[in-house]
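worker-3 :: picked LysM peptidoglycan-binding domain-containing protein
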Amino acid sequence: MANNVFIDLSAFQPDSLDYFNQMKALGALGVVVKLTEGSEDGSAYTNPRATNQINNARFAGLKVSAYHFARYTSDGDAQNEARYFAKIAKQFGLPADTVMIDDAEVNSATNYQSSTKAFINELAALGYTTNGVYSMKSFFTGGTLDAGQLPNVWVAGYGVTDLGVSNAVAWQYADEWNGYSQDVNYDFTGLFTTGLATSAVPMVQIPANVEVEHINTPATGTYIVKSGDTLSGIADSFGTTYQNLAAINSIADPNNIQVGAVLKVTGNASSEDTYYVQAGDTLSGIADKFQTTVDALVLRNSINNPNIISVGQKIYLSGSTNTYTVQSGDNLSSIASSHGTTIDSLVSLNGISDANVIYVGQTLKIS
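worker-3 :: tokens ->
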């Protein structure tokens, strides 16, 4: 039983009976379908393919479970999300003994463990008592989540031989399977692959949504600029230099930083092309800004819902934009000459206020 295989999927995977028959023929015994994301007063997302995915997986003879992609920022918000998950599950006719999973991989709460437990407890109170938590290995081994205090822990760990989580009931070990762009998992206990959910739909009434404030905790290693801040003052607070902050955040004018801007404050400049989400950003706006596409950003960053990104979130950029990392002794003229472009073009592309001022480690867009 330790090597039973199951798949998990969202709206990005097919929903046809033929697809699930193929998955079963390859050895899958169960499927976990993404059902919802966020809360009724938040993103309120329901997988548009869930109906067909659930029905056709059942027709193919696979055990069906469901998961919710968590966006909660507090215990109260987590309870609201559990209510939304349960409400939609009931609408889909999912029995009370369906395995219901909290996909907890976006740490936007002050105490993520507490909020995750609040979600699980609320879900159980609403009649779905066979529940569990999915997250990446680093969240469990790094202390973000305490696996020992959570039920039915399902761990994502690619390219590892030891999950480091002794009570894991399942292991997501790859995101490609037999030529398919498909997450695949080992089921250690049979929870996801044996038996069928056969009980009635829970009769517990879903409480009304309680209004809460959605406040995302900034990503680790970032800082949100406040009124009165200076780049040098921020640098002093984090034990670095304003030149390094300018370089790693591609700030053209270190005397001009915007209140509310999210700055990376750890590490050194890298040629890696990244962007930190600012207030008001959309994925389509970021794609336009960096001359790429929403689809490319979704693929590069494994984004489940392109309509939802968080302030402070690190976005790996893709597309045709060429970049160059400033080296010691460089000036804008020499960089332009070596890349077959002009100073004016570099100034315009990078929002540089003074063509005579660039920093070692600064990442410049070339085209």
